[in-house]
Amino acid sequence: MPLIAVASPKGGVGKTTLTAHLAALLAAKGYRVLAMDLDPQNALRLHLGVSIRDEGGFLAHLSERGNWRQSLRHTDFGVQLLPYGAADPAEVLDIQTALAQDPGLLAEPVREMLKDPELLVLVDSPPGPSAALASLYPLIDHMLVVLLADGGSASLMPQIVSGRFMGRGSLIERLAEKSMVVINQFERGAPLPEAVLDLATKTLGHRLLGVVARDAAVMEALASKRLLTEGGRGAAEDMAVLADAFIRRTQLRRPGERRSGGFSALNEWGA
Ligand SMILES: Nc1ncnc2c1ncn2[C@@H]1O[C@H](COP(=O)(O)OP(=O)(O)OP(=O)(O)O)[C@@H](O)[C@H]1O
Ligand SMILES: [Mg+2]
């Protein structure tokens, strides 16, 4: 527990970059983090320092119903990783069809991961609707939606608040209430980004969790197999602030920290 999903109706906004940084920043603070890639681009592993030649993974072999533990990679950032794995386009379509027909194919192993009370599972997802992410909707505790400070993102904000970018119904509305938004690649002082951020504060209210600056250091770090977790200004500072805000907002507990409140009998009855 818990399950945290990073998602967006838009592509190329920084979902994978933020997933990798959040995972590494939380691990550095003493959390036990399992990062899982639901995106067939299979890129999360590259952000976490796994070799491009390592093509193993979890989702790509989902139909074989193997043990997810066998696909785990231990990264240099203290994060355990389940890469998507290499899959050709026909295989990706087969996986999507299988997941649409049987969400338990992914939900069951994830349920098993979540039984570990000290493990925090953080998933990176492909842009837009995805059968993999949809199969986890009932299990997600916190959703981090990534947007840019541009016109396209501004037009999507009402759909983020309503949850319509994920679908309809009570399950989706419940998930939308748990959604938080990050505006990434923000350029301070530029007229359009500033106007979009003003709109975001009005439309999203408390859902706006943080803002991360556009910073060439992000791309440079990826190209040299690093993450911006050592502090500094710009995006590094913003991502550290974002991780702290996320911990506070979600009341994330480190291993050994005690849970407060809740309905104790329900834990037993639901076992
Ligand atoms: N704050 C930032 N400043 C500058 N560049 C950034 C920032 N965040 C992400 N990028 C760059 O933007 C590009 C897209 O980032 P990333 O791959 O994380 O997005 P994504 O949402 O996961 O994309 P996709 O939808 O394809 O999965 C990458 O080249 C990344 O290095
Ligand atoms: Mg991505």
TrEMBL record:
InterPro entries in alphabetical order: Cellulose_synthase_operon_BcsQ, DNA_Partitioning_ATPase, P-loop_NTPase
Protein name: Cellulose synthase operon protein YhjQ
Source organism, top-level taxon: Bacteria
